[in-house]
Amino acid sequence: MLTSDKRRAQLRRLLQGKRCLRALEAHSPISALLAQHARFEPAPGQNVGYDAIWSSSLTDSTHKGLPDIEILSASNRLQNVHDIFEVSALPMIFDGDTGGKPEHFALHVRALERAGVSAVVIEDKRGLKKNSLLGNDVFQQQDAVEEFCDKIRAGREALLTDDFMIVARCESLILDQGMADAMRRCLAYVEAGAHGIMIHSRKKDGQEIIEFAQLFREYHRHVPLVCVPTSYAHLKFEELEGAGFNVVIYANHMLRSAYLAMKGVAEDILRNGRTLEVEPRCLGIDEILHLIPGTR
């Protein structure tokens, strides 16, 4: 297995060598293993896989049966990070929610950096965290620009290495504050020391995401841009790569798909009074033995 130092440095190396990375949510060691082993061959000699793992606060809390309201701190989630690192060599991008107070964020940065995490993403909201895709249907408030910049600076000052990345996530488009506000904020966040920008949107056509990337690239050609195409799911990886994004995160699909599969199996066993009908939808014992090293 990789040491923490080598693991932490992977993401920066990948960003230097590839135009755009694919990251898949993993909420458990088994989901991380599946992400690492997933492969597709679009043509002979080509091999496509995932470059990184996304540790989502939504799926981490949902996996524990808890609401997605920042109830799990970075410290609460570190054991799961360690468990994932025991079985997977992929670098990790960590969903840090709001990051908490600047003093707390500095401590979280140190802990994640020591653990071997490659990057943390914090969003520019304040107060009780609500899921971004709820938009203005619930009360959500953005942080003041200067206060969020202070949090970024606190994280930068806490860094012990040049490997770890702090990515600022802008919620202006989520909260219908407009493109100008999103640009103003993101330029300020980069100036404050953010290593990258995640722009988020709940619009299903994805056009404001593409527009943002084009505008942002007029100011910063090499600052990593991150997107999460949960709402605009029709846009292909190649389209987002072509628009100027450097990381595409599929942020919750492993847990969402697992939930539907488990729900269906549980109900069908009751319906049929046996497991025969669900066996084709279940992982074979032989495949489990093959997937988990050392089981045979």
Topology:
Elements: H1 4-17, E1 21-25, H2 29-37, E2 52-55, H3 57-63, H4 74-87, E3 92-95, H5 102-115, E4 119-123, E5 125-126, E6 141-142, H6 145-158, E7 165-170, H7 179-192, E8 196-199, H8 207-217, E9 225-227, H9 237-243, E10 247-250, H10 253-272, H11 285-291
Parallel strand pairs: 1-2, 1-10, 2-3, 3-4, 4-7, 7-8, 8-9, 9-10
Antiparallel strand pairs: 5-6
Enzyme class: isomerase
EC number: 5.4.2.9
Family: Belongs to the isocitrate lyase/PEP mutase superfamily. PEP mutase family.
Structure commentary:
It contains 11 helices and 10 strands. The protein is of the alpha/beta class and 296 residues long. The protein folds into 2 domains: 248 residues, TIM Barrel (Alpha-Beta Barrel), CATH 3.20.20.60; 44 residues, no CATH class. 38% of the residues are buried. The model has no long low-confidence stretch (mean pLDDT 94).
Chain-averaged pLDDT: 94
Distance between the termini: 20 Å
Instruction: Tell me about the largest β-sheet.
Output: 8 strands, parallel, barrel
Strand order across the biggest sheet? 1-2-3-4-7-8-9-10
CATH class of the largest domain: Alpha Beta
Q: Please give the CATH architecture of the largest domain.
A: Alpha-Beta Barrel
Total number of distinct structural domains:
2
Q: What's the Cα radius of gyration?
A: 20 Å
User: Which stretches of 5+ consecutive residues score pLDDT under 50?
Assistant: none
Number of strands: 10
Order of helices and strands: HEHEHHEHEEEHEHEHEHEHH
Helix content: 40-55%
Total helical elements:
11
Indicate the structural class.
Answer: alpha/beta
Q: How much of the sequence is in beta strands?
A: 5-15%
- The shape, in one word, is globular
- The CATH H-level superfamily of the largest domain is Phosphoenolpyruvate-binding domains
CATH topology of the largest domain: TIM Barrel
